[in-house]
Amino acid sequence: MQERKVGIVAITVLNRENYARVNEILHQFADVILGRMGLPVKERQISIISVLVDGTTDEIGALTGKLGQIEGVKVKATLLKV
């Protein structure tokens, strides 16, 4: 059994046209998401989403990998062993 980790995934959406796809993927991974907060930065035409996650490295990696494949989306994760 894989060890579970807790962390934060930071998502920057540079193109609001892709926001629906980002939400769709987050919905697919709802079982590892503890909470999320999204803020639009209107002056810069971007949105920043922080997602608190609790899952295995494989689960979180699958989430960040799918998000990172979307054009105009940047993803960074910070994870802790608990």
UniProtKB/TrEMBL annotation:
SUPFAM superfamilies: ACT-like. It holds the Pfam family TM1266-like. InterPro entries: Acetolactate_synth/TF_NikR_C, ACT-like_dom_sf, FeFe-hyd_TM1266. NCBIfam families: hyd_TM1266. This is Transcriptional regulator. It comes from Kosmotoga olearia (strain ATCC BAA-1733 / DSM 21960 / TBF 19.5.1).
